[in-house]
Specification:
Blueprint: E1 14-16, E2 22-24, E3 29-31, H1 36-46, E4 51-57, H2 58-74, E5 78-84, H3 96-105, E6 112-117, H4 119-131, E7 135-140, E8 152-157, E9 160-165, E10 171-174, H5 176-179, H6 184-211, H7 217-232, H8 234-238, H9 242-262, H10 271-286, H11 293-311, H12 324-334, H13 347-356, H14 366-373, H15 375-390
Bound molecules: zinc ion (ZN) (2 copies).
């Protein structure tokens, strides 16, 4: 079984699976040890690059980017460091302005790129290195999202959030002492993104049972085991326990790899992600900051679990029962937000996201099914959820 393999045994090999497909992850090295930064430098040196470009932001430069650059220089590699800076008083974002500035400021001479950071830095470095035709590695500084192992970047181009094809890193590194000291909202974001997998897997089974969608039990088992281990770490995460933080980071990398192994995002995202994308797009259009992805996904998971409870008896197939109160309890144990109100989502936006969330993806989800087959029930459920949260 895929899930019998350890995380660093899954890399760089073909796996002929019982589902009929051959799965492959194009990552060479995963290292979450206490010497990860030293090992990352050694790994880079083994590739014999002449010039390296390190991309980080102002925070991750201080945390690891600066020392990473110094270690590479000591190893005899010419190193340029680009620090991505926020604009107009807002945080750094994976948008056209920031990406354009990176392209304009780097020399373009690098044989290899290094991302030092998490979501935004990794998404931008993935695109920049891929378009330059070079490999990249990521040194993760926060267990905040499942995009480390991804082949696509979630970018905001011309005010629209899109998933843009790139490449996965050839190496993923992270050091427990750095990861556990990430801002708390980044720890909870990673946890929320992992919790979303409960619904993602349920909806994959829903697609299998209702429309005969291809399904891989081994990848599901891999993701479920990682999620369960992460859930067991909820209390530890709140206390920044090293082992708990590493469990979350591993689950995030595994979820990302599961998407790479399967060839699309089916194993790790469903309707809980689509309503969140709808919220994000709405915030981007209005020019206001939104919650970190995973913090919204945790909330979105509770919303979709409540929705399933409202509609489940009218669905043509039986679906997995996931208790929204239990999801809420797990999220709270880890210190995560659980309600749309805590994320500043207003009644009207919640309702529109439930009605229109299916437009954010072609994936078969409960929202897609209801919008096509039973829009009255979708409207009823959206209104019932709004009443529960806002009245
Ligand atoms: Zn399979
Ligand atoms: Zn996600």
């Amino acid at each position: 079984m895929l899930s019998d393999l350890k995380i660093n045994e899954l890399v760089n090999k073909d796996y002929i699976c019982s589902c009929g497909k051959t799965h492959r992850a194009d990552i060479e090295r995963i290292d979450l040890s206490e010497n990860a930064i030293v090992n990352a430098v050694e790994y880079i040196v083994s590739k014999r690059p002449r010039v390296i470009t390190v991309i980080c932001d102002e925070n991750t430069y201080v945390i690891a980017g600066k020392s990473f650059g110094a270690m590479l220089e000591t190893a005899g590699i010419e190193t340029e460091i680009h620090i991505i800076k926020g604009r107009n008083g807002l945080n750094v974002a994976p948008d056209d302005a920031h990406i354009g500035e990176v392209f304009a400021r780097i020399s373009g001479r690098a044989d290899m790129y290094v991302a030092v950071g998490s979501g935004v830095v990794n998404d931008i470095t993935r695109i920049v290195s891929h378009r330059a035709g070079k490999n990249y590695i990521v040194f993760g500084t926060a267990p905040s999202m499942d995009g480390y192992a991804s082949v696509t970047s979630s970018l905001v181009l011309n005010n629209i959030k899109e998933s843009i094809p790139g490449q996965c890193p050839i190496g993923i590194f992270g050091q427990p002492d750095i990861l556990k000291n990430a801002p708390f909202e980044m720890l909870t974001a990673g946890f929320g993104d992992v919790i979303g997998k409960y619904n993602a897997i349920r909806e994959w089974k829903f697609g299998r049972d209702l429309i005969g969608e291809h399904y891989c039990p081994e990848i599901v088992d891999l993701v479920e085991k990682a999620v369960d281990k992460c859930v067991d770490s909820a209390q530890g995460l709140k206390n920044r326990n090293e082992e708990a933080v590493i469990s979350v980071m591993e689950a995030l990398i595994l979820a990302g790899m599961a998407m790479g192994l399967y060839g699309n995002t089916r194993p790790a995202s469903g309707a809980e992600h689509h309503i969140v994308h709808y919220w994000d797009v709405d915030c981007i259009k209005r020019g206001v900051e939104h919650e970190l992805h995973g913090n919204s996904v945790g909330i979105g998971t509770v919303v979709i679990c409540k929705l399933f409870n409202i509609v489940k008896d009218k669905l043509p197939v039986e679906t997995e029962a996931i208790d929204p109160d239990e999801i809420t309890r797990i999220l709270k144990t880890a210190g995560c937000k659980t309600s749309p109100l805590e994320a500043g989502i207003e009644r009207d936006l919640l309702k529109r996201s439930i009605i229109n969330g299916h437009t954010m993806s072609s994936k078969f989800t409960v929202l897609k099914y209801l919008s096509e087959e039973n829009p009255d029930l979708l409207e009823f459920a959206a209104e019932a959820l709004c009443k529960e949260y806002y009245n």
